[in-house]
Structures are given as structure tokens and as C-alpha cells.
Amino acid sequence: MGSVPVGDSGFCRRFPKGLGFNFGSDGSSSSVVLDQERRAPSRLGGKRVGAGILDAKTAMAMRSHSEAERQRRERINGHLAVLRSMVPCADKLEKAALLAEVISHVKKLKRNAAEINRSYTVPSDTDEVRVEVEGDVTIAGRLMVRASLCCDNRPEILADLRQTLSGLHLKTVRAEISTLGGRMKNVLVMTSEGNFSNLDKHLFVASVHQALNSILDRVNSREDLLPRISFANKRQRISPF
Questions:
Q1: C-alpha to C-alpha distances, 137 to 109, 144, 235, nearest whole angstrom
Q2: pTM for the predicted model, two decimal places
Q3: How far apart are CA 85 and CA 89, in angstroms?
Q4: What are phi and psi of 151, to 5 degrees?
Q5: Gap between the Cα atoms of 138 and 198, Å rounded
Q6: How far apart are CA 121 and CA 11, in angstroms?
Q7: What is the tens place of the pLDDT at every residue in 13-32?
Q8: Closest CA to 115 of 124, 107, 126
Q9: What are the sequence ranges of the domains in the chain?
Q10: CATH superfamily name and code, 123-224
Q11: How many helices (H) and strands (E) does the chain have?
Q12: Which residue among 19, 52, 83, 112 has the highest number of C-beta atoms inside a 10 angstrom radius?
């Protein structure tokens, strides 16, 4: 077998390119180029995969934000619909005007409820003392006080009220008494002549409140000293069955 010279360029040209033969400096450079071409697609593919993951996360975050915003708008619209149902003729009002109208309407309802509560003298289940000034002192020239006492129905309460009011030098203008289920409510409108400043007015109201509270305390203390009524003394409800 004959030997082939390594440096014979004609022999090297007989083989096709790309078989990985490294002969001389030309072969080394071509091998480096092939290695770079093999690695380049893997780098580009990794970048494309990473970019795809980021795009998916961004799209998911945008969808989540959009869904949260949609739910928030639905809640607001639901609350506004409830507010519109509370106020008459509020279908075409804007949000700010609707809120102002609702606040005004609620304040009006509270005033009406307070007026109704004051006009009715139905006793409640809890002991209560309320004292407030009626009217303007500077215009009327006198102090008008409205006081209410709600407690258990006891015969001695009227005598205690009369004695207490005489000690305060008050003139009774109107008196209302109502009873229900063993409870009673006394509503008194009283007046006192004389000049009253704002400080005197508050002190006077506080003194009336304290006097009525003392009546309530005496009633409760007497009730604690009374003996317990046995069931035999109570009226029995007879059932036909």
C-alpha cells in the first residue's frame, strides 16, 4: 500500500466538506465554525422559551387584574343600585349627587323618627330618664324643659314627681302618663321663669335629670325590698283543654 502525503492538498479536496477532518490551519477554523453553528440554535431556543414564560405570566396577571376590576365595578354598581332604591326619583343622578341625596334623606328619616318617638308616650321595657330643652330661651324669655321618666308602674311615683318638681320651682305646662303591661311612662313639659345663660341652661337640665334619676333609684330600691309575690296570689290562666 502506498503512502499518501499529508500535505497533499489534492487528496484533501477529494473528501466532501463537513466530515470533520482537521488538516492544517484550515481544518481547525472550519471545526470552530461548525461548533458555533451547533450551539447557536440552542441559545436562541432558550431565549425564546424564557420569553414565552414571561409573556404567559404577564398575560395571566393582566387577566387577574381585569377580573378583579370587573368584580369591583360590579360591587360598586350593586351598592349604587341599593342606594337608588332608597331615594325616590334617583335613576338619573350621578354618583356624587346620589350620595348627597341619600345622606339628606337618611337625616330626614332620623328627624321624623325622633319626632314620632317624642309624640308617642308608649312605655318601653327599660328604665329611662330623658331631659331636653324645648324652644329657644332667648326668644321665649323663659326656659322650657321636656322630661320623661319610664319605669315600673308604682302608685308612689306621682307623689315623688310632685315633690321633686316643687323643689325645683318648676311649673308644669303639660303632663302625659301612659301605662302598658306593668310599665309606665311620664312625660312632663315644664317651664321656669327667669334669665338663663347657656351655662345656666345646661346646669338646670342636669339638675332636673339628676332629680328624676333619684326618683328612679328610689322606685328600684323599694321594689327590691318588697316580698316576692307567690304564684297563688297571681291570676291564673285556665285552659279549657
A1: 27, 7, 51
A2: 0.45
A3: 9
A4: -160, -170
A5: 10
A6: 126
A7: 554 554 444 444 444 444 44
A8: 107
A9: 23-86, 90-119, 123-224
A10: ACT domain (3.30.70.260)
A11: 6, 4
A12: 83
